[in-house]
Amino acid sequence: MRQVVVTGATGQLGAAVVQKFRAVGGWLVKGLSHEEVECTDPVSVRAVLAGLSPAVVVHCAAFVRVDDCEDQPDVAFRVNALGALHVARACREAGARCVYVSTDYVFDGTKAEPYTEEDVPQPINVYGASKLAGEHLVRQTCPDAVVVRVASLFGGRGARGKGTNFVLTVLERARRGEALRVVDDIQMSPTYTLDAAEAIVHLVERGALGLFHVVNDGRCTWYEFARKIVELSGLQVPVEPVSHDAFPTRARRPANSALATHRLAGLGIRLRPWADALGDYLAWLAAGIPSG
What is the dihedral of CA 134, 136, 142, 147, to 10 degrees? Predict the structure, then answer.
């Protein structure tokens, strides 16, 4: 049986990838936590992967706290770029295919329409720059690698590195009866981790190569996203649109980081509209099903 190894397996996307590979069958799935492999240590990475002999490695581990990346650029590049390089080199030595998870933040946000895989990246924050460096290092090291850009993820009980996600934060505040003030001048592509993970499984099983944008269909602002969360949850709290200037952050955010999925669609893989995915996620949360 083929083996797939997932780094960052306790994270929001990594856990979903593990779940979807197990669900499809035909794979021996090994999820690795940060405690089990240190991606910034090439010796650790090489030893772990050599011992497992995987056919595929999906590298989800990352330093994802965008504002903290501004304060700790050395950590951001050590994890997101050099860590990806160490994993890619170990994949090459083990004869495994490498799947690297990147981000919509590789773009500067000046384009009016969703970004395609052919658009030239130009990150405006350290996080985006570190992930773009990881893209280049992985593809240079493993020509048969798959690079998957995801965006604005929601799923499970939140991101391990952040302790939550946008949906959970909105729900928590709305249930306390707080009025919500949410940014309405930044557009993005909300993406359900289970849908993104399922697309990653399809890409692996079809032997796809190269760069793919993997996001749910459609785009919206964070304000529109919050409105839909409140509406679908049946909560009665006001949601006020504000400019991003109302919430200054250390890292600049692209004004538009929505992604187009033309290459994915070319393989017949389509993710459903984000609002439909959100409805399923909210239903899962309401049912109180344990994560993992």
Answer: 70
Structure tokens at 263: 């290459």
Active-site entry in 127, 192, 223, 281: 127
Check if the beta carbon of residue 180 is closer than 8 Å to that of residue 174: yes
Q: What kind of fold does domain 2-161+189-219+257-273 have according to CATH?
A: Rossmann fold (3.40.50)
To the query of whether residue 127 is one of the catalytic residues in this protein, the response is yes
Tens-level pLDDT at each residue, the chain (292 residues): 899 999 999 999 999 999 999 999 999 999 999 999 999 999 999 999 999 999 999 999 999 999 999 999 999 999 999 999 999 999 999 999 999 999 999 999 999 999 999 999 999 999 999 999 999 999 999 999 999 999 999 998 765 555 689 999 999 999 999 989 999 999 999 999 999 999 999 999 999 999 999 999 999 999 999 999 999 999 989 999 999 999 999 999 999 999 999 999 999 999 999 999 999 999 999 987 654 4
CB atoms under 10 Å from CB of 27, counted, come to: 21
Q: How far apart are CA 215 and CA 237, in angstroms?
A: 28
Beta bridge partners of residue 148, listed in sequence order: 101, 212
Q: What is the distance between the alpha carbons of residues 201 and 260, in angstroms, rounded to a whole number?
A: 19
Give yes or no for a contact between 262 and 193, defined as CB atoms under 8 angstroms apart: no
Identify the CA nearest to 42 among candidates 128, 137, 127: 137
What are the structural domain ranges in the chain?
A: 2-161+189-219+257-273
Alpha-carbon distance 85 to 139, whole Å? 9
Q: How far apart are CA 192 and CA 214, in angstroms?
A: 10
Q: What share of the chain is helix, strand, coil (3-state, %, to 5)?
A: 45, 20, 40
